[in-house]
């Protein structure tokens, strides 16, 4: 029942240039029929493609869509485990490649960027995560797509991102360059 037109009109009224729309935060639901997501999270996708509807409505108003995805949850990495097996690490890599390939191929320029959350948790459990491979997967369908890998209040885990998430524990000085 999500009213996409009303939402896009409201966003336009704010003067925003971007909308960060959450896909799977505390629960791994995806508001679109993404088969690779459904494979990892059975029963947690929709027949309605709300991502495409929102992107189209916003793009008509000159507003870009950025999709928020919780990294460990979306790509199924159990960061609560003490250690991860090689198979669990490879499964995570396979999941992000499959999901990002499908989303990138499906949405192309409809998605201007991604905001990936909880990468400090991924990095703590999987310090050899192939960041370059991940970055390349995020660009499928749109080489200009921007991404960030949120490290919460910790230092950045990798330079393989286009912008800083900006989540901090206390006020900071605005960056001079970047």
Characterization of the model:
The structure is a single chain. A four-stranded parallel sheet has the order 1-2-3-4. Helix 1 crosses helix 3. The protein has helices at residues 4-14, 35-40, 50-60, 71-74, 86-107, 119-125, 131-138; strands at residues 18-23, 64-70, 111-117, 146-149. It has 178 residues and is α/β, with parallel strands linked by helices. 31% of the residues are buried. The chain has seven helices and four strands.
Put the structure in a nutshell.
The chain is built from 7 helices and 4 strands.
Per-chain topology:
Blueprint: H1 4-14, E1 18-23, H2 35-40, H3 50-60, E2 64-70, H4 71-74, H5 86-107, E3 111-117, H6 119-125, H7 131-138, E4 146-149
Parallel strand pairs: 1-2, 2-3, 3-4
Q: What is the residue-mean pLDDT, rounded to a whole number? A: 93
Task: Please write the string of helix (H) and strand (E) elements.
Answer: HEHHEHHEHHE
Q: Using only CA atoms, what is the Rg?
A: 16 Å
Q: How does the major sheet shape up?
A: 4 strands, parallel
Q: What is the total tally of β strands?
A: 4
Sequence stretches where pLDDT stays below 50 over 5 or more residues: none
Helix % is 25-40%
Query: What distance separates the N and C termini?
Result: 39 Å
The backbone outline, from C-alpha atoms, is globular
Helix count equals 7
Structural class: alpha/beta
